Amino acid sequence: MPEFAAATVRLRTPEGAVALPVDASVELGAWAADASGRLVGPDTPDPKLRTALAAELREAAADSRGRGPVTALSYVPEPRLGELARIELSALVADDTYPALTVDLLQRYLAAPTADSYRPPEAELRTLPAGPAVRVRHAYVRDVGRDGLGTVLETCAYGIRADETWGLVLLTSWQAQAHTDALCELTDELAQTVRVTF
């Protein structure tokens, strides 16, 4: 199979999601103002909603851009509530340390407990149209204050082995724990839509 540079990777954009500009040539302020206007709609009487959503989208785009994913989406099914989840699709390419990319390696990478782990990761093997995969659910504690309290960030990820030299990671992350089941289900559906062509 050809190397990653020769591949085209596609992912379905769910309803209520906006593609974040990961290309550095896009000016984030103007983009965010336009995107928030499209999400909120022209008939929204509250300009503060449009302004707040634009600020959140600008921050989301800058955050995702810093990781350099293939594509990134902000999932905003209810614009008045802001971003519910972030969805990113990234490439992993084999190197001298790991010359072959395997599902086992993807599992070790995605399911490794960290000092910030809130609970042990849960991993299971799957088969997707784009290749063999591992699905990992994980939760982390971020921004821990002096009182020891922090914010729980939940993730549902798929490590997909496209071929022996590269793979993909589909990662959905969120803080709204009441939506965990629905967001894991959304990630499962999106994983089925990942396509690689050459």
Give me some keywords for this one.
198 residues, seven-stranded antiparallel beta sheet, two-stranded antiparallel sheet, 27% helix
Would you kindly provide a brief summary of this structure?
The chain has 4 helices and 9 strands; from the N terminus they run E-E-H-H-E-E-H-E-E-E-E-H-E. It is α+β, with helices and mostly antiparallel strands and 198 residues long.
Provide a descriptive summary of the structure in words:
- By secondary structure, the protein is of the alpha+beta class.
- It has 4 helices and 9 strands; from the N terminus they run ββααββαββββαβ.
- The protein has a 7-stranded antiparallel sheet with strand order 2-3-4-8-7-6-5, with helices on both faces.
- A hairpin with a 2-residue loop joins strand 5 and strand 6.
- Helix 1 packs across helix 2.
- It is globular and about 55 Å long.
